[in-house]
Amino acid sequence: MTEPLQARLAAAMDLAERAGELAMEMRPPPGSGHAALKGPQDWVTEADNAVERFLSGELAAAFPEDGFQGEEGGIARAGPLRWVVDPIDGTANFARGAGRFCVSLGCMQGNIPLIGVIAAPAQRETVWASRGGGAWLNGDAIHAADTSAVSQAIMELGWSRRRSNADYLKLCERILADGTGLRHGGSGALGLLDVAVGRIDGYAELHLNLWDVAAALVILREAGARVSDFLAGDGATNGNGIVACAPGLAAAWSDLPGLPKPR
Ligand code: LIP
Fold first, then answer.
1. I need a surface site. Which of 35, 114, 134, 185 has the fewest CB within 10 A?
2. Superfamily assignment of 3-141 in CATH?
3. Average pLDDT of the chain, as a whole number
4. For residue range 134-160, what is the model confidence (pLDDT) as tens digits?
5. Which atom from ligand 1 is nearest to the alpha carbon of 211?
């Protein structure tokens, strides 16, 4: 890995953990009423904005030539390398005082994800990867699972109001008909991370945005998972469906309704 990328990976790991500490300080108590709605079931808290401001400022100071794109503020800066950030992924959980949320930092060169760091502070986990450098959880190498039978697999299906309930139910029916265990956790980045770690065998969602997946795409690749081409077409600008899975299940999950094939 080049020295500039090594410096960016080290900075991203430090900043993701510091951003996670900030999020934990700002996490609301259990209960409702601590978030605003951006759209149907699409939440935002003060912490989302505060964490994004923190990361944008620190990255601008450390790497002024780099671009920055955040979920809340959009594309703030352009550059040959571009940070793509979800300040709090799993906001619906975070807003209720729950622990299944994370800070996600990806660094891309054009449409090539080069660095990914995900910090899950309530889980005390930081996962990172660089293209060609392997994937790591708190310093231990991680690998996708070796599951090969759908009847023994666990699949998380992400959900949002960005696609129809009918299409989501078709997916649920197919997964359940295969005898696969079905999960839903409310954080796409953490679901994709669990595939890379081997804790589940697949994650699929009819639509995610670039900031949800930019870090996870590098981590999944380096962990040996199979992933659909999220950046195909206008995926980088308008989002896309995604299937990420253990390599032994890519064929079985190559025809999920409404979703691209894992490669
Ligand atoms: C969320 C994703 C989740 C998706 C939600 C939302 P956020 O990201 O992690 O998979 O289903 O609609 O996009 O809003 O918590 O950063």
1. 134
2. Fructose-1,6-Bisphosphatase, subunit A, domain 1 (3.30.540.10)
3. 97
4. 999 999 999 999 999 999 999 999 999
5. 16
How far does residue 2's CA lie from ligand 1's centre (Å)? 32
Polymer length of the chain? 263
Band (pLDDT 50/70/90 cuts) for residue 34 is confident
Q: How much is the pTM?
A: 0.97
Alpha helices in the chain (DSSP H): 3-26, 46-62, 91-94, 165-177, 188-197, 210-222, 235-238
Q: Which residue has its alpha carbon closest to ligand 1 atom 16?
A: 89
From the options 3.40.190.80, 3.40.50.10420, 1.10.287.130, 3.20.20.120, give the CATH code of 150-249: 3.40.190.80
Ligand 1 environment, Cβ below 6 A: 71, 86, 89-91, 158-160, 187-189, 205, 208, 212
Q: Which tens digit of pLDDT belongs to each residue from 112-125?
A: 999 999 999 999 99
